[in-house]
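Listing 4. Sequential folding, example run.
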Amino acid sequence: MASPLRRERVAEQVRAVLSEIVQHQLSDPRMGWVTVTRVEMSPDLCYAKIFVSIYGAERDREASLQVLQHAAGFIRGELGRRIRLRQTPELHFRSDHSIEQSQRIHDILKQTPIPPESADPEPGA
């Protein structure tokens, strides 16, 4: 079992390499704008959950996720050539909705009226 620090370092390295592979080596026309947001490694470094943010309509997101899952073998091979690990992790792609959620929260906060602050504090308060 790898230490939590090693898992974190490997996950960051995997994220960087996967980002490069997805941007420069996958040329499927169904692929939308894909960003690898984070990677979670299993304790034994044999499995990796890849969280991706996909820009576009829901149909485009589903198509892009299917392309990534279909190309997982190719991506894993490329990853194995670029990163020196005892075993190249099995890749599992997941959609990351955190950017959409933060945008929704931002929009709600933007619409919420903020009462003006009074210039003089009340005495005794």
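-- end of first protein; second protein begins --
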Amino acid sequence: MAPAEPLTDKHAVGVQTEADAVSVISDDEDIGEDARKDVPLPPEVKRGPEDEPFETLKHKASQLILDLFPGYCARDVKIERMQDGENSRFLSVTLCKIPPKAPWYTTQRVLELLQPCLTGRPTRQNKRKRLVLRIPHNPDQYMHHQAVMLAYLGLKLEHPVPKIVTFDPTAHNALGRSYMLQKRLPGHRLDVLWPTLNQAQRLSAVRAISAVLLDIRKIRNKCPGFIGIRNTTYDLKNDFVSTEPIPIPRLRNTTHQVTFNVTLSDPQSAKDFLLDLCVRQRAYATAAKQPGGKEVWVRIVKVIETLHESGLIPDSSPFHFYHGDFNARNLLASVTSESEIVITGIVGWDSALFAPAFMSTRAPFFLWSGNMGSEGEEGDALAEPEDAALLEAKRTFESVVGEGFLKEAYSPALILARRLWRFLVNGFTNGADIFLAEDVVEEFERLYPCA
């Protein structure tokens, strides 16, 4: 197992940084020029009747921005499409005050034109605010949890994460649905940037990403689950962070009302946490009269017990923070030299929570798979690339994270356990999920015939 530092009496343990995680952009803040050109936008895909075309949505988004920033007028707001995510739609918002130009023959206009010549300084440009409007596909309203989580990460991580300007979990706004407005992080999506990088820059990216994984893993808690909405700023800054159990079913409709009378997670072992998920998922499937799957849950319970008996999920291990979707599309980066890049943002935290330690040691095998845009199967992490450059990338990762991390990352049994995670959290949503879970369990049973 990867070595762990001793826990204190506090809920969470980690290096504290002083930073403001949630903020409102002031009128004079300049977010700077951003030449980001992400992937060419594909045609819009209508996911359901609630999704509306961009051409009508952008007018609602523009009105929302004007409601939030009353000092601007319609010509100051620019709304553009962005690449949609798995869980949300994204719109780019640029705010820039554009004063009407004086006629060319007026004294004011002449002075504006002559200023660069007379002073040697360029004409003062109005500052721009670059924001991202995030609109969930499914308004199940875990938005309060995400807001608290991003605030916490802003305090705990030295790496840049989205900063919230404001959010509204209700439909009582110009959009007619919930939204979150965030500052736009600089840089390019790594999967888009990757083909343009030379080998030295790619190895720099591997080192930076490996360091990010280790830093996220340092955030620990005695209790599993999502960061609770009852945490205050004091709690987050001083590591008195309470968590809430994973709700089952994972997605559910709400009335947009937030209750603070929620159950909190207790300190427990990874084994007990995973077994409790099995029990609750099976109970929900029975109550919902979902066909099949009962026998699979019995076999998954046996997998968990075998992992515990084998010492792979010890009782003494704390819960580590887990991103949940750590892929190239959720990493932003910028080139700083012919041999270096810097990670400028980590996004896509929708599924992040405190999970068993083995979840935080999932290897970023997309860095050496040869197919940056494909998620692939985690078993690919064990493959030795034939391409020398890809093999060098894998060796670079291994040299940064160390032997303890690799022992869990490359453990065949824990790789299979990580593949079962989605079913433990989300249950079986269709027959295909049951077949996939059965395949994983059968593969584990071949590793441990007595399981």
